[in-house]
Amino acid sequence: MKLNGISVVIATKGRVKLLEDLLVSVQDARKNFDGPTEVLLVDDSNKDDVIAIDSMCMKYDARRIEFGPSVPEKRNVGAKEAQYDIILFLDSDCIATPNLLDEHYKLYTDEKVGGVAGYLEFVGEDTWFWQAVDKTPFTICFSFPKWMDTVPWTPTANCSMRKTVFEEIKGFDRSFPDKPGGEDVDLGLRMIKAGYIFKCTADGLVYHSKKTWIPVKAMIRRLWYYGSANYYLTEKHPDYVMNIMPRKTSLYLTGLISLLAVALIT
């Protein structure tokens, strides 16, 4: 039987400054949570960064687990090592709000609640490129918890799940290629099919840096990957994906048109 508490799992590689900002914020959230917690960093950084990360683990009461490079498999490893009943997945370029852990945990009042989707708000400089990105469909899924009670899936940047449910559905499916991904959508859909629900919390908020989204080349790759992931999702979940995911061509064209329009305006 798993102990009552929260295990925070963070897949990491480099991003030392962003990671420290996250650990500071998680430490504050842990102080505001009335229960035991742990932080697991599943990491494959270079040697120099590992030295800095090990120092941060000592300072902020975290444990580093050497593993990589696959991000979904890092999360599987972290979930396997977790000792508490709720696993909270966070991205390394996020900042936790003070009541994040409590807002997630308090929604697990019904055994049918298999997971909780937290609200994610992007913060940082509003460059012309970010204004273009924000007009595409790619960021909307992060804000679903702001106005929805349940969702069929959620990004893992701010997502919790019962450890027992995660194990029951066998975690992230490693048959999905690391790129383009889509394993977070698949995880949610498999949980729903297993008879559980994904509750939403607008108050379980994290802030996400825009810096890791706005390099133009990185965003173009992201546009392609998101659309390409639809192929694998449609193969596995044809009845669900047709209704909740835009097609590859429409995603790519919408993104490019939006980027071009804002570039011309500015």
| Unreliable residue runs | 244-255, 261-265
**How many runs of DSSP E, i.e. beta strands?**
9
Shape: globular
Query: How much of the sequence is in beta strands?
Result: 15-25%
Mean pLDDT: 86
Largest sheet: 9 strands, mixed
Estimate the helix proportion, in percent: 40-55%
H/E series? EHEHEHEEHEHEEHHEHHH
**Helix-strand makeup class:** alpha/beta
Count of alpha/pi helices? 10
* Amino-to-carboxy terminus distance: 58 Å
Using only C-alpha atoms, the radius of gyration works out to 18 Å
Set down the secondary structure blueprint:
Layout: E1 3-12, H1 16-31, E2 37-43, H2 47-60, E3 63-66, H3 71-81, E4 84-91, E5 94-96, H4 100-105, E6 113-123, H5 128-133, E7 150-151, E8 158-162, H6 163-168, H7 183-193, E9 197-209, H8 216-236, H9 238-244, H10 248-265
Parallel strand pairs: 1-2, 1-4, 2-3, 6-9
Antiparallel strand pairs: 4-8, 5-9, 6-8, 7-9
Helix pairs in contact: 1-2, 8-9, 8-10
